[in-house]
Amino acid sequence: MTTHTHPQAAAAGSAPAAHEASTAPAASGAISAARAEGLPVVQAQGGLSAAWTERYSSALMNTFGTPKRVFVRGEGAQLWDADGRRYLDLFAGIAVNALGHAHPLIVNAVTAQLTTLGHVGNFFGTAPQIALAERLLALAALPGSGPAAEQGPAGGPDLGSGRVYFANSGTEANEAAFKLTRLTGRTKVIATEGGFHGRTMGALALTGKPAIREAFEPLPAGVEFVPFGDAAALENAVDDQTAAVFLEPIQGERGVLPAPPGYLKAAREITARHGALLVLDEVQTGIGRTGDWFAFQHAGIRPDVVTLAKGLGGGLPIGACLAFGRAAELFTPGSHGSTFAGNPVACAAGLAVLHAIERDGLIERAGEVGDLLRQGIEELDHPAVAGVRGEGLLLAIVLRRAAAAEVADAALDAGFIVNAVNPESIRLAPPLILTTDQAREFLGALPKLLDHALDEAGRS
Ligand SMILES: *Cc1c(COP(=O)(O)O)cnc(C)c1O
To answer: PTM N6-(pyridoxal phosphate)lysine: at which residues (predicted)?
Structure first.
């Protein structure tokens, strides 16, 4: 892409860049209508980042630290900040914006739904939530495309028997799954070290990161942790008292650590043998990101429960807990609920995401562009890089030194959004619409960014 605005150029007061940020052509009608009513419509005027950052820090709780940028507009895989600088978004709001920013299908679906019916509450049903539940169940029942999948799904229930519980986020989808496991009559739950399932008390109880748990103990009881990827440890831990095993196919927050080959299949076999539920947290891996609709399809297994969120709503808050077989019957009226869950606007966005993924072949694209990125990074043969982990468009560049933060900062300064998921790993989770040209643009800039991870000797 030759039009990429270098941030320094924009910072030096490049009028076109600032202007570009302030007016999204498709939005201008809605913006003037809102203005006419006196609603605050915040747009970039150029040079405003510092002011907004200061206001952020005085008004918002300090849960995320000081924001490195304040963004005002997005389009496709691009974002503009309050100073009018353009960025290529390789992180998609933590693997959320599957269709990028301001995708016409989502804008139209959400607008159509909101101008028709915005919310009724869960004493009533709406067409989008019913249609989305049906679509998700049908997609979960598809065979996968991976090598393991070709052998046919291993164990587990008939996915035709599924039911969906909608939530508003990943942590809520996991709360639902956790509560559901209590209704099996068993209370012992196995989760994995280094796993991440969310920040609410139940999901936190399943999360294998002591640093983010300890301040909030006591957490719901009954959870035991085993090392991730170790089938023998799982075999030892699961018994006839075990209600469920919670696993991520790829531990995203740990640094994009995939389960070793055969692990999910072993987990399926072990849980089935003991009558325990296999719950897969696909909040990060689901909805096309790894090059299949669900990562479990790649592994050729059938879980009892799958949780979803991030990529499902294309930026609107939505989560889902899919359960199959007997797990689908555990909740009964009164067992669980939420005021907003299954909101028709969020569900309409979800339907738009699924439609676009199918229409535009984005599952295949995730596999192809993911391979291009992986190979491109490996071929750089950069001395700071130890390797690449992950699947499809959920990747980590693993560094030889703990310099991920420096590389991510350098990337941001150069106009690329990536994530230092841990001190040694740079996570890439771009929109599924990322083009090969955009992937190459990033690969072209990468060597210089990675130089920030060289030690003093390597840099000189
Ligand atoms: C992000 C994430 C969650 C939590 O989702 P929220 O929407 O932030 O609550 C849970 N599990 C996994 C695997 C995640 O990546």
So the answer is: 310
How far is 448 from 411, CA to CA, in rounded Å?
A: 9
Instruction: State pLDDT tens for residues 396-405.
Output: 999 999 999 9
Element (H, E) at 312: none
From residue 173, how far is each of 118, 220, 394 by CA, in Å? Answer: 22, 16, 21
Its pTM stands at 0.92
pLDDT(318) > 90 = yes
Instruction: Give the distance, in angstroms, between the CA of residue 150 and the centroid of all CA atoms in the same chain.
Output: 26
N- to C-terminal Cα separation, the chain = 31
Q: What order do you get walking across the sheet with 86-89 strand by strand?
A: 71-75, 78-81, 86-89, 416-417
User: CB of 307 closer than 6 A to ligand 1?
Assistant: no
Q: What's residue 374's pLDDT?
A: 98
- Active site residues per annotation: 196, 281, 310
For residue 413, which phi and psi values (nearest 5 degrees)? -60, -30
> Of all atoms in ligand 1, which is nearest to the CA of residue 198?
4
Lowest mean pLDDT among 53-57, 253-257, 380-384: 53-57
Kindly tell me if the per-residue pLDDT of 384 is higher than 80: yes
The helix/strand/coil state of 427 is strand
**Residue 198 Cβ < 6 Å to ligand 1:** yes
Tell how far the Cα of 207 is from the centroid of ligand 1, in angstroms: 10
pLDDT tens per residue across span 281-316: 999 999 999 999 999 999 999 999 999 999 999 999
Beta carbons of 247 and 194 less than 8 angstroms apart: no
Tokens representing 114 are 């909101």
